[in-house]
Amino acid sequence: MWENGLTKLLKIKYPIIQAPMAGGVTSSELVAGVSNTGGLGMIGAGYMSPDQMQNQIREIRQLTDKPIGVNLFLPSNYTANEEKLHKAKALLQSVKEKFNIEKEPVLPAHEQDIKTFNEQLNIIIEEKVPICSFTFGLPSPEVVVKMREFGIIMIGTATTVQEALMNEKAGMNAVVVQGSEAGGHRGTFHTEEKHSLIGLMSLIPQVADRINLPLIAAGGIMDGRGIMAAKCLGAVGVQMGTAFLVCEESGANTLHKEAIINASEEEVILTKAFSGKMARGLNNTFIEEMSRYEDVFPEYPLQNELTKEIRKASAANGTTEYMSLWSGQSPRIAKKLTVRELMNNIVMDVEKTRGSL
Amino acid sequence: MWENGLTKLLKIKYPIIQAPMAGGVTSSELVAGVSNTGGLGMIGAGYMSPDQMQNQIREIRQLTDKPIGVNLFLPSNYTANEEKLHKAKALLQSVKEKFNIEKEPVLPAHEQDIKTFNEQLNIIIEEKVPICSFTFGLPSPEVVVKMREFGIIMIGTATTVQEALMNEKAGMNAVVVQGSEAGGHRGTFHTEEKHSLIGLMSLIPQVADRINLPLIAAGGIMDGRGIMAAKCLGAVGVQMGTAFLVCEESGANTLHKEAIINASEEEVILTKAFSGKMARGLNNTFIEEMSRYEDVFPEYPLQNELTKEIRKASAANGTTEYMSLWSGQSPRIAKKLTVRELMNNIVMDVEKTRGSL
């Protein structure tokens, strides 16, 4: 009943992928927990150094012998606009003072990002990680050929039909279709951000009508109802972020988990204030204060570096008001469970939903 | 298999409601066609005079003896801000000159709107229309008592969990849950517009967990896949707009129908430029030109009156660039069919989707 093209491709029991949330959410316990209960656990390696990533892969291997995956961010090409940087720094100064932050941000450099990305790819090959997914773009033809040579399954991300077609053409083995409901950063890499906010009810069937890759639905899916709905629309699997983020094993800050569990869907909004790239999370003071300056911020990942210490200090001070509280649009369904409890609930829920049709 | 609480309540065969699109889309042929093929045809009476509405009800009664419904707009309370009106008129002047429009807009008056609404209610009672739905708010307790006395089924509209709870409390018999995917005006009446754009994948289950009314899913649903997905999420029926708008029997302008059929999902955006209230439709020159002035426009329905002649003139001149081309987020699935063909396709599609699970 659960077996399909995707479960066979990924060698997993249930077509349920734990979203590779970056920034420390994907603890080894979370990733291994998901893989051990029949889903696919994934490391969100977007902000990791090659060493950190390698260490975590090895740590997880001690906890599970099931398939796991790693997600990488394609290095974005950006130019440091001095005027924008100056303005953004000035805007953030009062917040920095509030938390007594003196550390100056170290701006990223594109060449270094590319070097890191290539090293990450080599570790994936070296560590024989069976599955690698990509966000914020597509790997080059050379990378695709190399990964394929080593038998690594590649999963891309798309937020529009056009981006899904580009994934297919680039040689991805499957594609995550990210709906507007999704928490965290938009994976948009080709379409203009404001034209890429398509709800899954619309996005999945329109993509399914045009591409032949296995589709993995992402955005707002929290339980068996969402999984069955995604299947009806043409997906063969789902990628769930928020539902796993609030799990006991997740590495997310407790304040973040509790904020989601207590939130309503109206509090989940879009902002570029934390990173320069559009992302979905719970509204707070920082987002409100910065909402007038969305066009002022330097582009991703520059703004991300500028706000890094602020987010850290907010958490350290026990307040959620200056943290990035990424969440999808279904916080009311979020429950504090262990991964095993969540997976069990989902499987039972799918049976129940199927029976009700 | 199709029978459920909603089909019994509305006395229809299939839980498929044709969205009561205002502005001439819901021709008598469309409404009767939907009811005659087992769905619920609805008159979008939002912009109609009581007489127009009464005439259409009588005309449709010649074409079908099945249940039909009427949708009314709750009169919005607004104040004519002279400065905003002046600015908006100035902004629109060049477009008016382009089309040689000399007619001065007649601004609506709230007292008149209330009078019209009450007359519409009386006609619904007089003509024994079995079903009445409401948009942009909820009827007063007095109206609810009166409608109930005459056995009229009342359907409200909600875009958030909070609004759905308000519908339940107000005594609605069912509620349309409008996702962010939906075309045309947002039905939002309580939540701030920018916090009310929830995708159906998130919205339906969160509402279903909290209210006991039959839920009707609206937004991006075009075929049996969407209907089955909505059922999985907790809805018992669907309301479809765009799919019926492009049907041969619909009264929408041919230019509008063709624009949708040729559009991609990326072209469907949100704008307040036509009416002062947020609505979803295809991007065009007018929306682009006005996008910088979203905060300048007077509120609904004032801006709607200011742009009325422009939209008409655009259509009359054979260009879509200044028309309001309302559409949901799934234009790629839109097909030019007769109502009967569409309904047949949906029923077959539902069987197919069910069989694939």
Outline of this structure?
The structure is a homodimer of 357-residue chains. The first copy, chain A, is of the alpha/beta class and 357 residues long.
Description:
The structure is a homodimer. By secondary structure, chain A is an alpha/beta fold. Chain A has one domain: TIM Barrel. The first copy, chain A, contains 14 helices and 11 strands. In chain A, the strands form 2 sheets. Chain A has an 8-stranded parallel beta sheet with strand order 1-9-8-6-5-4-3-2. A 3-stranded antiparallel beta sheet of chain A has the order 7-11-10, with no helix packed on it. The longest helix of chain A has 18 residues. The model of chain A has no long low-confidence stretch (mean pLDDT about 95). Chains A and B meet through helix 8, helix 9 and helix 14 of A and helix 8, helix 9 and helix 14 of B.
Got a strand count of chain A? 11
- Element pattern of chain A in H and E: HEHEHEHHEHEHEEHEHEHHEEHHH
Mean pLDDT rating of chain A: 96
For the largest sheet of chain A, list the strands in their spatial order. Answer: 1-9-8-6-5-4-3-2
- Estimate percent helicity of chain A: 40-55%
Uncertain stretches of 5 or more adjacent residues of chain A: none
- Mind telling me which CATH architecture of chain A this is? Alpha-Beta Barrel
Largest sheet of chain A at a glance?
A: 8 strands, parallel
Bulk shape of chain A: globular
Just give the CATH class of chain A.
Alpha Beta
Class by alpha and beta content of chain A: alpha/beta
Number of domains of chain A: 1
Radius of gyration of chain A: 19 Å
